[in-house]
Amino acid sequence: MKRLAVLFVFFFCSIPHRLMSQVSRGQPFIWAVASASYQVEGAYLADGKGLSNWDVLTNTYHITEGLTGKNQTGNIAINEYDRTQYLKDLALMKQLGVTSYRFSISWSRLLPQGTGKVNEKGIAHYNQFIDDLLSNGIEPMITLFHWDLPQALQEKGGWQNPESVQWFEDYANLVFKSYGDKVKKYITFNEPWEDRFLFTPAIDNILNKKTNPIAFTEEQLANCAVAAHHLLLANALVIRDFHQKKKGGMIGITLSLSPTIPVDPSNAADVKAAQLMDGFHNRWFLDPVFKGRYPPEILDIYQRVNPDFEPSAADYALFAANKPDFLGINYYAPDYISANKDMAFGINMFTPNPDAVPMFNGPVRPEYLYKMLMRLKKDYNNPLMIITENGAGFGSGDDSLVGKSVNDQLRVDYIKRHIDTAMQARRDGANLQGYTLWSIFDNFEWVFGYGRRFGIVYVDFETQERIPKKSFYAYQEIIKSYLKK
Ligand code: FCB
Fold this sequence. Notes:
Elements: H1 2-14, H2 17-25, E1 30-34, H3 37-40, H4 53-59, H5 65-68, H6 83-96, E2 100-104, H7 107-110, H8 120-135, E3 139-145, H9 151-154, H10 164-179, E4 185-190, H11 192-207, H12 218-245, E5 250-256, E6 260-262, H13 268-291, H14 296-305, H15 313-321, E7 326-330, E8 335-339, E9 347-348, H16 366-379, E10 385-389, E11 401-402, E12 405-406, H17 409-427, E13 432-437, E14 457-459, E15 466-468, H18 470-484
Parallel strand pairs: 1-2, 1-13, 2-3, 3-4, 4-5, 5-7, 6-8, 7-10, 10-13
Antiparallel strand pairs: 8-9, 11-12, 14-15
The protein binds beta-D-fucopyranose (FCB).
């Protein structure tokens, strides 16, 4: 008996800590890459698909022109709808060694008008795609909504319309019915803060020809809170439906979590602005999702501007009763915040990136990813967490194609440092169960068109040629080394 005990102790002490936490949690760590329908699929009119808001924003309103001077669309994107193309791309993913692929479904392919009549060809497309993923040994992780709303619903007010809750619930149930037997991981929404509080008012300002599209008004933002509330109600209902179906698997929501740093930590106004911004951006979503209520001080601010915004006790009960099985975390960078009386709620969230070589999505600060994961452990009861996006793009020649290679050393460093710090948080007890890189391929980067590359595979947007970058091989090595452990 004693000998057995000694052997037992010896055995467990000799397992590297990292592996031990995997063993004890039972599930293999997920290594993934991500994309979103509008950014990669193209084929915007194929097989009965209806128009999405992004089809209209690009084709009718030329939304990329303001920032890039070019009129670009996702009409072709990187041609991912085409099976001949995507089979080659899946072969690259297999070569990369990922265990999972996070992609989103285009709502208007399944329901061209957003509700009502189903487009069977759209259903068949994702069925085939899912089968092809599975036969390559890659687990699908479906995002239900990554910003492309059917235009027919946009014209009815989109998320501002309380009926949007029902629209989304019906669409989600169609997805579960169609793919629920073979897809076991779902994400309801991608980055509701960016979608509702950043892109929506910015796009409104562009369409209304405001000189500064990011000069939001307090009324605009308080209005966005109403739409975001519909989205959170839809999130809770769909989580409830998914659980009631008992088909197995997990459902979560993906939040963009950006720690906020005062530009001048010795200035009390900057410190206060940074705390407030944390409330607006991070806690506004984390609290209802995990604690069943909004942060009171932020709710107060919105209600002062819009007294009609009044979430009910039933809404809170719905939140509290329907928590996600996991939290998807998109982390790119922290936000430097300063106080500015002329800006909405006295906050300037658009301070310049202080780094010598600026990354598109903000300053490179991997230590803040660690802090965020540990904060979630402490303040939100350590939910099961999957990093659903992390990645980088630099406008500094990091993506230059020289012959047939791209030596994207800045991206390589970014990825390595962020994975290291995430794994450190995991060793320190954060319940992190997966890492997803954004993105496998260069693609259509929303209002920035094709000018911002985030891929680890270079795409020639004219010929659709794919060229793995240095970061592709670096990520491949990282995955290999962790899977071996
Ligand atoms: C995230 C989006 C994703 C992509 C990356 C670079 O905010 O979710 O679609 O645009 O940024």
